[in-house]
Amino acid sequence: MEAAVAMQTAGRLQEPTASDRPVLAEMIADLKPGDEVTVFNREVVGDDAAAAIEEKGATLHSVTEPHQPTRTFGYVRTANGSADSQRAAITEAVGTIRIFSDEGVSGTTAGTDRPGQRELVAKLQAGDEVDVWQYDRLGRTLEAMRAVVELIIAKGATLRSLTESPAEGLFSMKFMMAVAEYEHAWKLEK
To answer: Where is the Resolvase/invertase-type recombinase catalytic domain positioned along the sequence (predicted)?
Structure first.
Protein backbone atom coordinates (compact mmCIF):
# COMPACT_ATOMS: atom_id res chain seq x y z
CA MET A 1 0.00 0.00 0.00
CA GLU A 2 2.94 2.36 0.56
CA ALA A 3 3.68 2.19 -3.17
CA ALA A 4 0.13 3.34 -3.95
CA VAL A 5 0.49 6.37 -1.73
CA ALA A 6 3.91 7.20 -3.19
CA MET A 7 2.61 7.03 -6.76
CA GLN A 8 -0.46 9.05 -5.93
CA THR A 9 1.74 11.71 -4.34
CA ALA A 10 4.22 11.67 -7.21
CA GLY A 11 1.52 11.76 -9.92
CA ARG A 12 -0.89 14.26 -8.34
CA LEU A 13 -3.53 13.06 -10.86
CA GLN A 14 -1.57 14.37 -13.80
CA GLU A 15 1.29 13.35 -16.02
CA PRO A 16 4.48 13.14 -13.93
CA THR A 17 6.61 16.23 -14.45
CA ALA A 18 10.39 16.18 -14.80
CA SER A 19 10.65 16.71 -11.02
CA ASP A 20 8.31 13.74 -10.40
CA ARG A 21 10.39 11.33 -12.51
CA PRO A 22 13.12 10.80 -9.86
CA VAL A 23 10.44 10.12 -7.22
CA LEU A 24 8.75 7.66 -9.57
CA ALA A 25 12.07 5.96 -10.40
CA GLU A 26 12.92 5.70 -6.68
CA MET A 27 9.51 4.20 -5.90
CA ILE A 28 9.90 1.64 -8.70
CA ALA A 29 13.39 0.73 -7.46
CA ASP A 30 11.97 0.00 -3.99
CA LEU A 31 9.16 -2.25 -5.26
CA LYS A 32 9.09 -5.91 -4.33
CA PRO A 33 7.14 -8.77 -5.91
CA GLY A 34 3.55 -8.65 -4.73
CA ASP A 35 3.50 -4.88 -4.11
CA GLU A 36 0.56 -2.98 -5.53
CA VAL A 37 0.72 0.45 -7.18
CA THR A 38 -2.58 2.28 -7.65
CA VAL A 39 -2.87 5.26 -10.00
CA PHE A 40 -5.76 7.32 -11.35
CA ASN A 41 -5.15 6.12 -14.88
CA ARG A 42 -2.34 4.09 -16.51
CA GLU A 43 -1.30 7.01 -18.69
CA VAL A 44 -0.20 8.83 -15.52
CA VAL A 45 2.91 6.67 -15.20
CA GLY A 46 3.52 6.04 -18.89
CA ASP A 47 4.34 2.79 -20.68
CA ASP A 48 8.00 2.58 -19.60
CA ALA A 49 7.24 2.99 -15.90
CA ALA A 50 4.28 0.58 -16.14
CA ALA A 51 6.56 -2.05 -17.70
CA ALA A 52 9.20 -1.45 -15.00
CA ILE A 53 6.58 -1.85 -12.26
CA GLU A 54 5.40 -5.16 -13.74
CA GLU A 55 9.00 -6.37 -14.27
CA LYS A 56 9.53 -5.94 -10.52
CA GLY A 57 6.64 -8.37 -9.94
CA ALA A 58 4.37 -5.62 -8.66
CA THR A 59 0.80 -5.08 -9.82
CA LEU A 60 -0.34 -1.81 -11.39
CA HIS A 61 -4.00 -0.88 -10.81
CA SER A 62 -5.91 2.03 -12.29
CA VAL A 63 -8.71 3.77 -10.43
CA THR A 64 -10.69 4.29 -13.65
CA GLU A 65 -10.14 0.96 -15.44
CA PRO A 66 -12.94 -1.60 -15.19
CA HIS A 67 -12.41 -4.46 -12.76
CA GLN A 68 -14.42 -6.87 -10.65
CA PRO A 69 -14.73 -5.06 -7.32
CA THR A 70 -14.74 -6.92 -4.03
CA ARG A 71 -17.38 -4.50 -2.68
CA THR A 72 -19.27 -1.64 -4.26
CA PHE A 73 -20.45 1.50 -2.50
CA GLY A 74 -22.33 4.53 -3.76
CA TYR A 75 -21.85 8.17 -2.90
CA VAL A 76 -24.36 10.99 -3.41
CA ARG A 77 -24.12 14.68 -2.58
CA THR A 78 -26.38 17.64 -3.05
CA ALA A 79 -26.05 21.16 -1.68
CA ASN A 80 -29.79 21.73 -1.56
CA GLY A 81 -32.71 19.45 -2.19
CA SER A 82 -32.84 15.69 -2.18
CA ALA A 83 -30.31 13.24 -3.57
CA ASP A 84 -33.07 10.69 -4.27
CA SER A 85 -32.56 10.84 -8.05
CA GLN A 86 -28.84 10.10 -7.64
CA ARG A 87 -29.64 7.24 -5.24
CA ALA A 88 -32.20 5.81 -7.69
CA ALA A 89 -29.73 6.00 -10.61
CA ILE A 90 -27.03 4.18 -8.64
CA THR A 91 -29.46 1.52 -7.42
CA GLU A 92 -30.81 1.00 -10.94
CA ALA A 93 -27.31 0.64 -12.41
CA VAL A 94 -25.68 -1.43 -9.67
CA GLY A 95 -28.42 -2.95 -7.55
CA THR A 96 -28.87 -2.65 -3.83
CA ILE A 97 -25.65 -1.40 -2.25
CA ARG A 98 -24.72 0.82 0.66
CA ILE A 99 -24.91 4.44 -0.42
CA PHE A 100 -23.21 7.14 1.62
CA SER A 101 -24.70 10.60 1.35
CA ASP A 102 -24.09 14.23 2.14
CA GLU A 103 -27.35 16.08 1.58
CA GLY A 104 -27.40 19.81 2.16
CA VAL A 105 -23.59 19.94 2.07
CA SER A 106 -21.84 22.31 -0.30
CA GLY A 107 -19.46 20.80 -2.83
CA THR A 108 -16.87 23.37 -1.80
CA THR A 109 -16.77 21.87 1.71
CA ALA A 110 -13.64 19.78 2.17
CA GLY A 111 -14.29 16.03 1.94
CA THR A 112 -12.92 15.54 5.44
CA ASP A 113 -15.67 17.89 6.67
CA ARG A 114 -18.44 15.90 4.97
CA PRO A 115 -19.72 13.15 7.28
CA GLY A 116 -20.89 10.82 4.51
CA GLN A 117 -17.70 11.10 2.51
CA ARG A 118 -15.56 10.71 5.63
CA GLU A 119 -17.47 7.54 6.58
CA LEU A 120 -17.19 6.16 3.03
CA VAL A 121 -13.42 6.66 2.84
CA ALA A 122 -12.96 5.09 6.29
CA LYS A 123 -14.87 2.00 5.10
CA LEU A 124 -12.93 1.54 1.83
CA GLN A 125 -10.48 -1.31 1.32
CA ALA A 126 -8.27 -2.26 -1.62
CA GLY A 127 -10.38 -3.65 -4.46
CA ASP A 128 -13.56 -1.76 -3.53
CA GLU A 129 -15.41 0.44 -6.02
CA VAL A 130 -17.12 3.78 -5.42
CA ASP A 131 -19.97 4.62 -7.80
CA VAL A 132 -21.17 8.20 -8.27
CA TRP A 133 -23.80 9.64 -10.56
CA GLN A 134 -21.25 12.17 -11.89
CA TYR A 135 -17.69 12.99 -10.85
CA ASP A 136 -18.76 16.48 -9.77
CA ARG A 137 -20.73 14.91 -6.90
CA LEU A 138 -17.33 14.48 -5.23
CA GLY A 139 -16.87 18.24 -5.00
CA ARG A 140 -17.34 21.59 -6.67
CA THR A 141 -13.74 22.73 -6.74
CA LEU A 142 -10.68 21.18 -8.32
CA GLU A 143 -9.00 20.92 -4.91
CA ALA A 144 -12.03 19.31 -3.21
CA MET A 145 -12.43 16.71 -5.96
CA ARG A 146 -8.71 15.99 -6.16
CA ALA A 147 -8.50 15.43 -2.39
CA VAL A 148 -11.32 12.88 -2.48
CA VAL A 149 -9.91 11.05 -5.51
CA GLU A 150 -6.48 10.90 -3.84
CA LEU A 151 -8.05 9.37 -0.71
CA ILE A 152 -9.80 6.74 -2.85
CA ILE A 153 -6.53 5.97 -4.66
CA ALA A 154 -4.63 5.70 -1.37
CA LYS A 155 -7.15 3.08 -0.21
CA GLY A 156 -6.61 1.04 -3.40
CA ALA A 157 -10.25 1.46 -4.42
CA THR A 158 -11.61 2.47 -7.81
CA LEU A 159 -14.01 5.19 -8.84
CA ARG A 160 -16.77 4.97 -11.44
CA SER A 161 -19.18 7.57 -12.78
CA LEU A 162 -22.50 6.24 -14.02
CA THR A 163 -22.85 9.01 -16.60
CA GLU A 164 -19.26 9.44 -17.79
CA SER A 165 -17.26 6.77 -19.60
CA PRO A 166 -14.03 5.47 -18.05
CA ALA A 167 -12.46 5.96 -21.48
CA GLU A 168 -12.77 9.71 -20.94
CA GLY A 169 -9.98 9.25 -18.42
CA LEU A 170 -7.89 11.90 -16.75
CA PHE A 171 -8.70 14.71 -19.18
CA SER A 172 -12.42 14.23 -18.65
CA MET A 173 -12.04 14.20 -14.88
CA LYS A 174 -10.04 17.44 -14.90
CA PHE A 175 -12.46 19.02 -17.36
CA MET A 176 -15.46 18.04 -15.20
CA MET A 177 -13.72 19.49 -12.13
CA ALA A 178 -13.10 22.79 -13.93
CA VAL A 179 -16.71 22.95 -15.20
CA ALA A 180 -18.06 22.18 -11.72
CA GLU A 181 -15.90 24.93 -10.22
CA TYR A 182 -17.05 27.40 -12.89
CA GLU A 183 -20.74 26.50 -12.43
CA HIS A 184 -20.45 26.99 -8.68
CA ALA A 185 -18.77 30.39 -9.08
CA TRP A 186 -21.39 31.46 -11.65
CA LYS A 187 -24.25 30.48 -9.31
CA LEU A 188 -22.66 32.48 -6.49
CA GLU A 189 -22.48 35.57 -8.72
CA LYS A 190 -26.20 35.32 -9.54
So the answer is: 71-190
